[in-house]
Amino acid sequence: MTALALSLTAATALQATSSQMGILDAARTIPFLLIALFAGVWIDRCRKRPILVATNLMKALLLGLIPLFAVLGVLCVEHLYIIAFATGVLTVFFDLAHVSILPTLVQPEQLVEANSKLMVSSSAAEISGQSFVGAIVEFLTAPFAFILDSVSLLLSALGFGLINKPEDVRPRKSEGSLVRDLTSGIGIVFRNSYLRALALSAATYNLFEQIITTVIILYVTRDLGLGPAVLTFILATSSIGGVIGSLAADRVARRLGTGPAILTSMLIGCFITLLIPLAVGPVFVAAVLLTLRYFLSGIVAAISNIHVVSLRQAIVPREMQGRMNASYRFFIYGGIPIGALLGGFLGDMIGRWATLTIGAVGLLASLPPALFSSLPKLRSVPTCGQTPFKTEA
Predict the structure, then answer these.
(1) Could you say which of 13, 39, 75, 82 has the lowest number of CB atoms within 10 Å?
(2) pLDDT of 115-164, one tens digit each?
């Protein structure tokens, strides 16, 4: 709910410009550039569950300030910047702990199944969350969506607190200097041919996808004239596709092989985005094309993400998961705040449709690093989570 509610609050309640939308998205994502590497080293030395609980509680408190400011009549876009940045910092710690805890809870051969089930629940939550946001914005105003958002985060913290299986990896003690730990995490990503190719592709994809994300809400609501309810339905179809893709991920990989399944998903995801700049003319036709894009993208993104995450979790030892995930996300998320600022600037300078076209065409540049790597030969996810890490696949 959070990202969509922030964007709709800025767009509908505060009448933000494209540049302001870009700054808001950048504020939310730039913490990955600023602190992800340090957070990964720290998380490797701590238990993950307390981090998951604490970050959700603090995010619930911060987001609850938005409807309070709205009621008091003092809410402004600068408040959203600050809250987006603060929740972005907490999200860094949450995301790294979340992806790092899973290998301690299941066996290596269960990672694909576990990630598939997590993706199903995540996609289902996005469907309901975005639907609630759309309804609240339609009948009340966007800031009040954060009341439900905060409640959901409190329930999430409770859920993590109820996990009764202890982490079977002891907190890692420092084996060297902070600089050594930081560089070792980067080395894990770039010395392994699979991780290196995936990181380069994902970084490029995220840069251009964020250009699209920054202006798509303004394009749909102002240029096409569609209401928040229709917008949230279009975006929610991505999550519906995510459920389908999550259920099909294992079957697709068994038929094609893990590497080809990832690459096929990437190809479809990039080319289907070319439908976005075609979403012009009659409003109904534009809405159908956007819906088709987000629905199909949701399917292939789920398939790709499940196998990419499972691969990372399988080939890297548990005690290095925090540093590896931090370095990986530092690199692939590094282009997101740049894309947000660039999308906002271009949206104001050349128009939102032209900006969407640049983003859609630019996504194709993410394909070569993965296509010309060892990924096409990868038949299955290795089940070697407890074996020494191999720097070359």
Answers:
(1) 82
(2) 889 888 888 888 888 777 877 777 777 788 899 889 999 999 999 999 88
Cβ(1)–Cβ(132) below 8 Å: yes
Helix 283-315 to helix 111-139 angle (10° resolution) is: 150
Q: Which DSSP string do the residues of 228-248 spell out, in sequence order? A: HHHHHHHHHHHHHHHHHHHHH
What would the pLDDT profile of 315-327 be if each residue is shown by its tens digit?
Answer: 888 778 888 888 8
C-alpha–C-alpha distance, residues 135 and 43, integer Å: 38
> Cβ atoms within 10 A of the Cβ of 290, count?
24
Full set of structural domains in the chain with CATH: 2-163+177-377 (1.20.1250.20)
Instruction: Give every CB contact of residue 360 below 8 A, 6+ residues apart in sequence.
Output: 208, 212, 273, 274, 276, 277
User: Chain-wide mean pLDDT for the chain?
Assistant: 88
Q: Which amino acid does the sequence have at 94?
A: F
Q: How many other C-beta atoms lie within 10 A of the C-beta of residue 186?
A: 17
CA angle 294, 296, 297 (to 5 degrees): 60
Q: Are 174 and 45 in contact (CB under 8 A)?
A: yes
Residue that is written with structure tokens 């994300």 in the block? 213
